[in-house]
Amino acid sequence: MRMESKQKKQNTTLQQRNYQQLQQKHEIKRPVLKNCIKAFFVGGLICFIGQAVSYFYIYFFNFTEQSVGNPTVATMVFFSMLLTGFGVYDRIGQFGGAGSAVPVTGFGNAVISAAIEHRTEGFVLGVGGNMFKLAGSVILFGVFSAFVVALVKTLLVIWGVL
Amino acid sequence: MRARYRLILFTCVFFLAACSHNQPAKDSQLALMKTTNPKPVVTDKSKNRNRIEEIKKEVSSFPQIYDVAVVKGKKDTLVAYKVKHLHRFSMKKIEKNLTKMLEEKYPKEKFTVSSDYKIFLETIRLDERMKSPKFSHREAEKRFKEIVKMTEATK
Questions:
Q1: Is position A14 within any domain?
Q2: Claim to verify: residue A149 and residue A73 sit in the same structural domain
Q3: Do A65 and B121 touch (CB under 8 A)?
Q4: What is the full per-residue pLDDT of chain A (162 aa) written as tens digits?
Q5: A72 neighbourhood in chain B, CB within 8 Å
Q6: What is the pLDDT of residue B30?
């Protein structure tokens, strides 16, 4: 692969190389640090809302700190699905980048955006068939890794390590 | 457009802020967020209060713990506490050490220990309810047992 790229570089004419240099000079650099800061704050804000939701469930319902995770995740996914439907989450995503994609709200966004995209193809083959096109891999990876971790923990408990 | 946003903001602030004016805030309202440091609670009047004060002092001496609530029932003693943020990775270890210390120092007592926020909140709510003359000791003991049962479910 490396040889191939080297060969490709050799095959380019002087004019092409000059153009590439000129392009590199004028290319707008990616604002990596700015993006990181934006992602940090947007992700932090989503987590802050999540914490507030979990406190709400602890305070007003009979959930303990351990059991509050499930309704909180469900609520956050539901909120992100609604916001995706209204077209608000896309804007948040454009601004926050990974900060909006990494939390669980990004999962809801991935499911609904795929469903909206394919709704013209019908409810079964369009929405049903493509809804989990993006999020399916996340579910599969999550379920499989949970299985592996549970297996390791079970073995450690049987052997008396834990 | 700007005027509309201002109107919405003003309405929100008006409705959210105006209602809480001149009402003394209960400890349980902010128990999840701030240090409340409640007084030890005894559901059974006949029990000795000095020992429970001593238990609270002992638990508070742990450097990883910052807020302790102790409730003494007829048989059980419930110790609910909050762990400092940076020490939350070693919650199990802290709980183990705390239980061990309590059982060694007070072998006759039966302890239920929990770092769950819900349990802490419920102990403070119990304390507040006990201040009301309508809330009898029997009811307090019943609620205490429910909290202990809830603690067992979290383990």
A1: no
A2: no
A3: no
A4: 555 666 666 678 999 999 999 999 999 888 999 999 999 999 999 999 999 999 999 999 999 998 999 999 999 999 999 999 999 999 999 999 999 999 999 999 999 999 999 999 999 999 999 999 988 998 999 999 999 999 999 999 999 887
A5: none
A6: 83
Find chain B residues with C-beta within 8 A of A62's C-beta.
150
Does A142 lie in the same domain as A82?
Answer: no
User: Who's near B105: CB < 8 A, 6+ residues apart?
Assistant: B58
Residue A77 makes CB contacts below 8 A (sequence gap 6+) with A104, A105, A107, A108
Residues of chain B with pLDDT under 50: none
Give bridge partners of residue B111 from the DSSP assignment. Answer: B77
How many domains does chain A contain in total? Answer: 2
Looking at residue A101, its pLDDT comes to 93
Q: Is residue A153 part of a domain?
A: yes
Q: Does A60 touch chain B (CB under 8 A)?
A: no
Choose among A58, A62, A64: nearest Cβ to B32. Answer: A58
CA distances from B84 to B35, B57, B96 (A): 11, 17, 16
Whether residue A21 is contained in a domain is answered as no
Locus of tokens 């804007």? A91
Kindly report the pTM of this predicted structure: 0.80
Q: What residues make up the domain containing A161?
A: 136-162
The answer to whether B116 contacts A55, with C-beta atoms less than 8 Å apart, is no
Same domain membership, residue A62 and residue A85: yes
Give B-chain residues touching A67 at CB under 8 angstroms: 154
Q: Is A87 left (phi over 0), alpha (psi -120 to 50) or beta?
A: left
B25-153: CATH topology is GMP Synthetase; Chain A, domain 3 (3.30.300)
Contact B154 A58 (CB under 8 A): no
